[in-house]
Known about the structure:
- This protein is α/β, with parallel strands linked by helices.
- Among the domains are: 59-155 and 212-247, 3-Layer(aba) Sandwich (Rossmann fold), CATH 3.40.50; 273-493, TIM Barrel (Alpha-Beta Barrel); 503-583, Immunoglobulin-like (Sandwich), CATH 2.60.40.
- The protein contains 18 helices and 31 strands.
- Strands 1-3-2-4-5-12-11-10-7-8 form a 10-stranded mixed beta sheet, sandwiched between helices. Strands 13, 16, 17, 21 and 22 form a 5-stranded parallel beta sheet that branches. A 5-stranded mixed beta sheet has the order 23-24-26-30-29, covered by helices on one side.
- Strand 16, helix 11 and strand 17 form a beta-alpha-beta unit.
- Helix 1 (11-23) runs antiparallel to helix 3 and helix 12 packs across helix 13 (390-397).
- The relative contact order is 0.10.
- Bound molecules: zinc ion (ZN).
Amino acid sequence: MLGASFLRKTSLHDYAFTIAPFERGGAIQGHARFGCRAQAVLKRISYSLAFSISLLNEEAILLSGSDGLSSQGRNLAKLLDFFGVSWRASTLPALLSDQNINGSGLRVLCSSDHFAALIADLSRDSDRARRWREQIHSVFVYAGDDIAALDKLVKTRPGPCSGGFAISDKLPEFCGIMCGIRIGEDDSQVNLVFAAQEQSTEIISSDRGPVFLKREYEGVPAFLSSGARIIDIEDDLPDGIFDVRHHVLEAIPPVLYLKWAFAATCWSAPERSGCLVIDDPLLRPTYGFVDFRELLSLMRRYKFSTNIAFIPWNWRRSDSGVTRLFRENPEYYSISVHGCAHTRAEFGSADSEHLYAKTRQALERMDQHAAATGLAHDRVMVFPQGVFSEAAMRILKRTDFIAAVNNDTVSFDRNPRPITVADVWDTAIMAYDNFALFTRRYPWSGVENFAFDSLLGKPVIIVIHHGFCRDHCIQLIEFMERLNALACPLIWRSLGELVKRSCRQRALSPDVTQIEMYGKELLVENLSDRTKQFLVRRRESNPSLINEVFAGGRHIAWNGSDDQIQFEVEVRAGENVTIRLHLHELGEVKERVENLNDKARTMLRRYLCELRDNYFHKLTSLSSNGH
Ligand SMILES: [Zn+2]
């Protein structure tokens, strides 16, 4: 039997936890209406449970030594947990010793040391070799310590090398959105390359040879990486930014393999959405180098959408022709909320009263802007200068905002909380009081970073300032064309719509899908041809903050426990429903009134910024062009 050497860790436990509150009938918080459906829910649960057990065939096996998982093995385990994949650890002798396992669902992940021993083993034992072919779906192998052993599996050549990388465009199923991507040169992260061989298919290549390839061993596909390190997603990111160009070998091969090998069961995003955000402009025919009519025709032609991060202080200054242009083209233009007055670090303060006043004022000004222009805004905060505090996130959560969007992920506080790789790989960062912080990037982070974000299930949010359009948007269009040429097409949305559609989900049965929600609103869409149950969960360390949960305007039962809330919605085929969380009013914080001095300073600052964007930048650009 597979025996005592196993550590067991399955996402089924996770699922059982999710449904447990529904099973406990009486413990359900909320409404009696739900009670009469308990029977049906239980029936569904037993059906789903049976389906989930069959999914266990797709589980991952981490090969370990007799002393447990190695540090790289533990890093793989963290990755599997992150993607919601069931796994267990097994020693080499225990693997394939079970006669009774049916199916061919096992995915093995191991070092080349273990893999070399395993292959040698199979050549000696025909029974084990047969079970290998019958039970193992595929293998992921990273370089172990014993290079001679690896060399026997695939010829290697020593590094180091620092050349760029190319991801093959010949394996679209395996490489997904990373298909055909080129990654720029980086410091020497490659200590070993493989020799090109006929039996193998190159997946990632460096200028010195393949570093990730596929070949068959005893009839089973194996994916071999020449990297000896697997990324530890619990590592802190000192600057809060993940740049895949610095982690090519430790991140891309394992993630590509997991997304391919567990495609049916791992967490994934329901769609790949994108939005361009331009910070600061007033809604006038032109702002700096941005010409809104020109930009609209470019969006139509080159297929993308733009959100203007609008400074609420400017609410009385919009041009009616431009707001009409926005109103009439909601599939291309949207606006979000960019601070309040865009004064220095206005959301970087730790003063709750000040922050509450700023937030309320921002929302009031945006509402007045909507009333005056008829142009609605997305209730998404884009922090000025990227500066925010934990307190700001806590206050925003308690107002009408549904999420925040930012480049920076580390707060402005004196002792900011550490942000890990896993925080940033997540659909949105939930570390700040569980108020979703979606990340965005500048174009110069490279298409490879946006593609990798999308592979992880994150939305693609690009940020620029007006200066990026100084060449009549030529470099912008070149970049958008590269994004639109990715192997999996992006769906361009308004920023609010992108936030509402951002979640991760996995099928638990043909009728039941589990969803993890991030923003305070979520659009649940049933694209199938049958009625489906959606078990929705959202991280919330303080469930007592939640007042009500609405689904399509009706309030629904929910349950809060163990740092999350959960509830269930049924959606008929082809329909969708919007979930809204309503939190209790923020009663304890008083507002503070801005004094006249502050007002004058704010006004001066805004006008000077506009002078800079509209005249100084343009003049310097003209003179630098030699005119
Ligand atoms: Zn700004």
